[in-house]
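All the exercises in this workshop are built on plain-text protein records. A record pairs a protein's sequence with a compact description of its fold. The structure tokens are whole numbers drawn from a learned vocabulary of backbone shapes. Once this layout is familiar, the rest of the handout is easier to follow. An example says more than a description, so a record of this kind follows.
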Amino acid sequence: MAELRVGLIGLGMMGRNHARAIREVEGLELVAVGDAYGDPHGAAGGLPLCGSIDELIEQGLDLAVCAVPTGLHESVGLALAAAGVHTLVEKPIADTVDAGLNLVDAFESAGLVGAVGHIERFNPALQSLRSRIAAGDLGEVYQIATRRQGPFPARIADVGVVKDLGTHDIDLTSWLAQSPFASVSARTSTRSGRPHEDMVTASCQLENGVITSHLVNWLSPMKERLTVVTGEKGAFVADTLTADLTFYENGTFTTEWEAVSNFRGVSEGNITRLALTKREPLRSELEAFRDAALGVADNTVTMHEGLNTLRVAEAIIEAARDGVVRDL
């Protein structure tokens, strides 16, 4: 496989991970990195360290990964599109819908691959879960509930928890159910003294009728990444921190305990922890980006999809601000 020349812009925590993973993916050659603030994690190694996106582009790139702060996604992405470079932009696609739309237009008009780094789609537990839902293992899907909470990450300065963390859950929920969001309602809280929200609870409905709930915050001392999908045959629980997937089957046995049998819901059945092949999501995401650039296959999260996710995120923020249900 011929090696594609890759440039990386943004050398924070996520940029450091990208630098390592790019070096590990067959067919990719990391040729230069860039960050106006230097290289705090030593990601460059012996590669050229560029101080601007223009300097990085001058290295002669086929592909680029944009891991700069969200507020810079638009300007960096537009420069890469103008230079004819296929680009993977870290999520969210941009800080505003208008900025995201500019990126979509730029990459489409140039005939370039523009992808967004919604990495949860490449988590083995969620990939297996989506396949099982599509195969009918749950029957009709009733509800998708997510919990994503943990301590505040010092890397975030320009957006709140909805656009930073919540976009993971918006994207993965729509992707799992294969249906867009129809309406959203939410409550947010600001407790850390920053200008943006640091806690949200959202209640939503998809176009296919599935109801969803999302608890996201930066105010918890314990880290949690759970997705629970409940349907007519039971429930799947995916833990994306460990890439574990567990199936809780509806029971078929008669309950003889009167106090319990008075509840006319489902009964507990077998619980199965499913064995999965666990590949690193970041490597899988970069392989999908490589294949899209080569025209082999396109399993990336497109900029159109990233823009739709950002629209839902902004609707959640507006719904919380105004205390109303927002239709999409």
